[in-house]
Write a structure and sequence with these properties.
Length: 225
């Protein structure tokens, strides 16, 4: 039996080395680095490398891309020492396949109210799926809560990472509704876009640990990070 805590936790949108290290010290399983220029959490290659180096060997560093091509993604995987890739746009299944063939773990985002939808999940050979609502101006949760229960059936058949509108106050409800293997949070632990509030990170991780008994089926507790 896997002894790690479930749901696992990814803190996304890190922009500073000290805050990334702080998230790891508090128990995050993965951190996300956003390579999307329109995002307020966008990081340069040099900053991403600094962060990856600081947490190397401790957690997974996940590069988040939106409709980037194969060459751009692979360049940053190498330059920034990324250990996983998250595709958060309308990328085709073939891109997931090509990246997976390179030995990368690939997380594909699917959207309850967007494209690609949950119904398209079977077309993607991803190692896990991040599911959120898909409403808002930018790709990502946009700090908007939604009907997390609508992801539950998908998660019973696929490795599910739940995202969108999560906080320490509502995480128990969200996990109860969707039963994900992992949760992903960004704005819910910030004091401003791209700047993590480590007190909020501490509170969120503590709240997630209180959800551990909800995933009672030990066979489903496979690591996504």
């Amino acid at each position: 039996m896997d002894k790690r805590i479930f749901p696992q936790i990814k803190i996304c949108g890190l922009t500073r080395v000290d805050e990334a290290v702080g998230c790891v010290e508090r128990g995050a399983d993965a951190i996300g680095l956003v390579f999307f220029p329109k995002s307020p959490r966008h990081v340069t290659d040099s900053r991403a490398l600094d962060i990856s180096t600081a947490v190397s060997g401790k957690v997974k560093t996940v590069g988040v891309f939106v409709n980037a091509d194969y060459d751009e993604i692979m360049r940053r995987v190498d330059a920034c020492r990324l250990s996983m890739v998250q595709l958060h746009g309308q990328e085709p299944p073939d891109l997931v396949r090509r990246l997976s063939d390179m030995g990368l773990q690939v997380v594909k985002a699917l959207f309850v109210n967007g494209i690609p939808s949950l119904a398209e999940g079977d077309h993607y050979p991803a190692s896990a799926f991040l599911v959120e609502c898909g409403k808002g101006i930018l790709p990502g949760g946009n700090a908007l809560t939604w009907n997390w229960r609508s992801a539950k059936n998908f998660g019973l058949k696929h490795p599910l990472i739940l995202a969108g509108g999560l906080s320490s106050e509502n995480i128990f409800e969200a996990v109860s509704d969707a039963l994900p293997l992992a949760v992903d949070i960004s704005s819910g632990v910030e004091h401003s876009p791209g700047r993590k509030d480590l007190q909020k990170v501490t509170a969120f991780i503590a709240a997630v640990k209180k959800c551990r008994h909800l995933l009672v089926n030990e066979e489903r507790k496979t690591s996504v990070f």
